[in-house]
Amino acid sequence: MTAAAEASSPKPEPSFGFEFMLAMRYLCARRKEGGVTLIAIISFVGIMLAVLALIAVMSVMNGFRHELLTRLLGVQPHVYVYAPVNSDIDRGELADRIRRLDGVRQAGPVAVGQALVTSRRGAAFAQVSGVRADDLRRFDLITGENGVREANGGIVQGTAETFGEGRNGGDEIIIGSAMAATLGVGAGDQVTLVSPRGSATALGVTPRSKSYFVSAVITVGVQDLDQIVAYMPIEQAALFFNRPVGGDFIDVRIDNPDDPDAIKEAIQAISPTGTLVIDWRGQNEAFWNALQVERVAMRLILSIVILIAAMNIISGIVMLVKNKTRDIAILRTMGASQGSVMRIFLISGATIGVLGTLAGIILGLLIVIFIGEIQDFVALITGVNIFDPEVYSLYRLPARLDWGEVAFVSIWGFLMSLLATVWPSYRAGRMDPVEALRNE
Fold it and tell me: pLDDT tens across 228-256, in order?
């Protein structure tokens, strides 16, 4: 081969293994270059703590959201179906058709009314729901399924077995635990309901009152709901409150209340024209929007924390490039391309980000899994109950792991680490070897 051909032949590129070896060697700097290692350690710890915080905080927020929705939806319908008022639709028959749809756990007509509940010891306002006995026994609040028992909800006294038995549904009702405490009654005691919508007389509408026995006391786990919730047989509710025999609307409970849109469309398809179908989000729009905004805002804030932690990588790589100016010049003289030099420093920064993200994920998962034990340990050390159940109505700090959140954190942490490394790595690759050696 001639000298000209040899000079014109392409110079061999260093392999990826060689680039990786150099990147790891630069991160483990010698004592006189220990500043780079210190900044790398600080960057690693910063990303690890930021990822840990994001996973832990989002898991706790998911836990609170699950507890809140479980308690709220334990007593509230997931989907409301309002049939046209002036139609001859049999709401009971329509409810049975809805219950046969895939994804629907329970459906039944409900008659609602407001009443004053009195006893010898006190009085309380009640939001009374008239339901069929068979439908009541399918409620999560009665069966304790779908997280209700986990949320400390359900029957605390008595039984719902005899609910709805007797003439016109019988004379048994179920009330909330806070209402029972206000009235000073329990299962088997008698209370009196007073409704302003009573009988029509020549002197006008007179209040109606009737005595009922408390067959069971239930708790939703939310003080405000436990203070007003009450159930009675739908036949009694229709008579007592002068409501339609078929109820005011159909209460539908579904398997996935977080996503009721498909069920709403299916219900609308089998319902008569003019039927209004609304899910619980529409009935609690402000509450639902607040939950969504809070979740998005917290994720955004903690994502910015990861970005700030990743910014430390920039200073570390800048110092590393400055310390390795002579090495860069020698590598370029030996035939390394600009891309090869850039990849060396990209690997250095990405390694910090990947290891920090992995460590944060592992620690975050451990905190979520053992959050109960951590709570007990902190309470033992400090001597303070940091999560008083009398205040929060929860015995444990709730944490619910969402693997989608973990995937988002992993990708975000790695991308921010990589992006923080691009600029100093690009500058290192563009460095002129002649100028670099002259400055040295």
Answer: 899 999 999 888 888 877 788 899 988 88
If asked whether residues 116 and 265 sit together in one domain, one would say yes
DSSP assignment of 299-320, as one string? Answer: HHHHHHHHHHHHHHHHHHHHHH
Comparing 4-8, 106-110, 168-172, 430-434, the range with the smallest average pLDDT is 4-8
Give the global pTM.
0.68
Give a yes or no: residue 5 inside a domain. no
Output the CA–CA distances (angstroms, integers) from residue 5 to 8, 194, 334, 398, in the order listed. 5, 106, 18, 72
231: which strand partners? 129, 174
Neighbours of 42 (CB within 10 A): 16
CA 241, CA 244: separation in Å to the nearest integer? 9
Residue 7, domain member (yes or no): no
Is the distance from CB of 149 to CB of 220 less than 8 angstroms? no
Judging by DSSP bridges, how do beta strands 204-219 and 172-176 pair with one another?
Answer: parallel
Residues 194 and 268 in one domain: yes
The 10s digit of each residue's pLDDT in 373-424 is: 888 887 788 777 766 656 555 656 778 888 888 888 888 888 888 888 888 8
| Domain that includes residue 238, residue range | 77-283
